[in-house]
Amino acid sequence: MARPGHRHRLTLDDLDEEALAAGPGLEDTLDSFDNTLCERDANGNGVAIDSGGVRLQASGEEIDDAVHRDELQILDDNIGRGACSQVQLAKSRTDGRLYALKIFNIFDGPKRRQLWTEVKSLWNVHCPALIGFYGAFLDGGRVCCVLEYMDCGTLEDVIYKVPGDLPIPENMLASLAYQMLWGLAFLQHDNQLHRDVKPGNVLVNRRGEAKLGDFGIARRLEENGLANTVTGTFKYMSPERLNGETYTYNSDVWSVGVLLLEAARKRYPFGDCHNQIELVQGLQESDTEDVIRSCDLSAAFGDFLRGCMVMDKRERLDAEQLLDSPVFAEYGIHDYDSAAKVLAAWVRDCVPERKLEYSDDYDSDAKMLNTLGSSMGTMDEEATERCLETYNSFRASDEEVGNLSLDMADMDLKEAKREYDSTYDRKLGESK
């Protein structure tokens, strides 16, 4: 291991069995710098993640992340899962705030690449329509990204889990459209494409906010503003992407149109397509106008969707142009906050509140406290401190969790604490 302050390129000789089993190529993207995972671009800019958090390395400066690993307590081991990551629910021990902890395996090449793309896309980005990023840390063979927690889940959850068969009302669709376009317009100003806009990558909360998430395949465009790689979820790809042509920012706009049609109809608008070839054929044979007309939508919203779903990329509007569509003014939407306000009332009334399932660690730790509580004063100082620390964290979380009974009287902790205070001088840490 290199000395602190010195950089060392990791070689195969430095890797453990798990890393070796991951195959070739890992040594090309990993640096060892006091247990740090690093990645840089051709200009030397990049991100470094270690057990302490994310550090952006610019001009020799290191900027620490906002949320440290030790501040977080895992509440639920699995609130979501993607192709390249697992998502856990975590809670800050300091202020009780909830976070989504997105976990990547660093020994998996594709997952590692998506991690870097996501971190570099979200770090130091402040846009209300993009999911908040609060840091990251290295934990063994995993990198954990600390993200904003959205308590209604994904838009896919909202579309298909809302009770009843009634479609989402048009004013709600307008709110969702405006918020997604706001996020895409922000990305465009930063020369970025999302490239995977779909219901599962739009997160919603009970404040009515809809935010773009999952930037694992986002792409920064060069001066010509064009990309040509085919990546993403094919059902939401624009025609030019499906055909392997170059594409630009308005390819994400097509995805927004497909998503909104799906939300309006409560089913995917272009039938049962199992691959890109079938979808290309379906788009050639069908008319998007017929699909739009099949929805019970106003003329203004229909015109808006037509602006999103122009087959010819040269004629399709971009996100910033579509934000000026007349349909938004009809529903009192003129900025992100007003759009969220429109959606909030419907979410509160129609979207079931998400019930959180907390980790089994709570139950096991609660049993431990019950067992140790009565004998707490007889334990050594270190063990007693650990028990008190665990107890205090549970008392803080119990107000929100609500499914644990951590009564001090039941665990006899009041008496145990008095015994503890009489046995140890807490200020000096010495036995009397």
TrEMBL record:
Entry's InterPro entries? Kinase-like_dom_sf, Prot_kinase_dom
List, alphabetically, the Gene3D superfamilies matched: Transferase(Phosphotransferase) domain 1
Q: Where is the Protein kinase domain?
A: 73-328
Does the UniProt entry include the keyword Nucleotide-binding? yes
Keyword line? ATP-binding, Kinase, Nucleotide-binding, Transferase
UniProt-listed Enzyme Commission number(s): 2.7.12.2
- Which reactions fall under this protein's catalytic activity? L-tyrosyl-[protein] + ATP = O-phospho-L-tyrosyl-[protein] + ADP + H(+); L-threonyl-[protein] + ATP = O-phospho-L-threonyl-[protein] + ADP + H(+); L-seryl-[protein] + ATP = O-phospho-L-seryl-[protein] + ADP + H(+)
Q: Does the keyword Kinase apply?
A: yes
What are the GO MF terms of this UniProt record? ATP binding; MAP kinase kinase activity
- Family affiliation: Belongs to the protein kinase superfamily. STE Ser/Thr protein kinase family. MAP kinase kinase subfamily.
Designated name of the protein: mitogen-activated protein kinase kinase
- Lineage of producing organism: Eukaryota, Sar, Stramenopiles, Ochrophyta, Pinguiophyceae
